[in-house]
Amino acid sequence: QVDAVRVYVNSSSENLQYPVLFVVRQQKGVLSWQVPLIFRGLYQRTYNYQEVSRTLCPTEPTPETRPSDQIIFVDVASMAPFNIAYELLVTRLENFQLETNKAFNFTASPSQPQYFLYKFPQDVDSVIINVVSDAAYPCSVVSVQDIVCPVYDLDHNVEFNGVYQSMTKQAAITVQRKDFPGEQFFVVFVIKPEDYACGGSVPSSIHGNVNRTWNLQRTKNLQVTIVPSIKKSVYIQAMFFSFLSFLLFYLGSVVVAFVHYIRVQRKASAGRLSPEHGSGMMTSSHPISASTPEGSSYGAIDESSSSGGHQLSSPERRPPAGSDTDSSVEEESDFDTMPEIESDKNIIRTKVFLYLSDLSRKDRRIVSKKYKIYFWNIITIAVFYALPVIQLVITYQTVVNVTGNQDICYYNFLCAHPLGVLSAFNNILSNVGHMMLGFLFLLIVLRRDILHRRAMEMKDIYTLDYGIPKHFGLFYAMGIALMMEGVLSACYHVCPNYSNFQFDTSFMYMIAGLCMLKLYQTRHPDINASAYSAYASFAVVISLAVLGVVFGKNDMWFWVIFSMIHVLASLALSTQIYYMGRFKIDGPDSDVGMFRRAVMVLYTDCIQQCSRPMYMDRMVLLIVGNLVNWSFAIFGLVYRPRDFASYILGIFICNLLLYLAFYIIMKLRSSEKLLPIPMFCIVATAVVWAAALYFFFQTLSSWEETPAESREKNRPCILLGFFDDHDVWHFLSAAALFFSFLVLLTLDDDLDTVRRDKIPVF
To answer: Where is there biased composition of kind Acidic residues (predicted)?
Structure first.
């Protein structure tokens, strides 16, 4: 049993010029303080305490010697020219050593800190120190220090040694046996003289009663419980669970591919279908127009109305069968810069009713090459973005480990399981799903791409006029983006805080943007944005996110500028979408002609034809989309949310969901159908997203608040004793994104047997 002694002193004198000095000399150390004891706060404010109580550094008998009496000298002195009364009381602590799984209650104040000893039991390698209090304030600090004298137990020196956290109502520190060679440590509790560090009120100025005594005004009741943490076997179980859960997706994909292969082979042997049917290909016999019911096609116009587009997509623009390779000398401009073709664009794309044949007129090799740039560019972006991020978070983790300051990172400390140098390995492990499912999606896209190439080699050239044009570059980019989201989310959770939250959201912006581009590309393959302009737009968004992190807290000017940019960008994009990229504001006479053209367009389209827009469906989508975006802009301007990165992400996700809903509605309205696989993926996406969002909104920490306030939201693990709610969000969101990608990949498989001049554009 370890003996500990506590010294209590009190002096009635408030004279700061002549304090009473107390010096305690022990066998292995010296402890000294003065009364009144002075603490300094913000703006050089001072707080005086006339009652001081300190625990002396304990001595433990060694195995070689028997317990013996310890001699302690207490020296009291003052330079005052008059007598000063004081009180001195020395007591032996009965409950100095904390026990496992047993709660202990005590009281502390700034001038009366407390610390206790804990020894690891034989079968315990890691423990969690849980500290709770009914009152949020006064602000306190919990520290874990090695068995070394002196013990740093005052506000100005508690951060000098060990690991520490600030605290309001709750704190939790995980301690491992390997970090303490003596297999024991001190748990120190310090009450701070001011509350601003924990989110409390900030002193307004340096004025005030600096000589005021604070003896009984800042006491705090605390309860500490030390419980064993998880064993190593739980780490192994959690890793097996993480990998096996997502390997089931691989198994399911193999089963689906095998069943599909068997069905296709049976149909092929029966002579009804070619082996490639269902993998995004056309039948060898030309499709039956009855697949699009009479009178149900999008826009009741004669087939000859789109014959111009169909004639221009004649064999002269097609490569020979089997020549699907990229040419280093072919450029997109080879097709676009011909004046007659440019003129034809303006005629075709401004028709009231457009069909896919009108917007898939370019050479397939050139368009495929254009979309492959998305894939190669995102790999380059990922490498250059991820490397500095990894280096930065390693630095963050090193700083946390060296300084012991656990206020730097916003973990869920009640479920933060360390491994090696990582403080919260569970938050990193749970991101494995994004990487595994992203790679699986790449394999699925690769399979489709290979089958498509084989079919192109086997089919005659006229079968190119059926189904949605197959360009896989954006799908490859989406797979890489999903994998990188897992990597960067793991990097963010190495040390989650306000400064690096953008790492967790950057590729989410890109995923949402790429999904919208892919959805638009499906029926607008010739006029979709190039990779350079798309990634430049993402760069602008990420730059705005960084500016929002820096200036978005309280600066009204930033929100005004951002809202204006948001609204203007929505209007500009809406104009391009409405006119299929053929809207140009130009004029023969410098700037005057440009403005005249703008006024004429506004007058013609907004006043003369306001009752019936030329493109009604597009107009409805764009009106709803602009209302949603303007609502976001007004919300940001009024409320100025601190989490600017999530605010931008919400804008992207709402626009994506709106466009996807519009696409599916228009697809069904055009008498197209949803095959079983895309229907299953849509249902799975909705269900998994709903479950994922439930766990996402279970807030376990918040860097919008102080570290101490954030810890009030901490909660224990809920899965295998290893993963918390946010980890479950990681698992489910990875699956939800994977199913979302499959929706985009398979949504139009029903059109593989439909002529492109029968497929409407919307």
So the answer is: 327-337
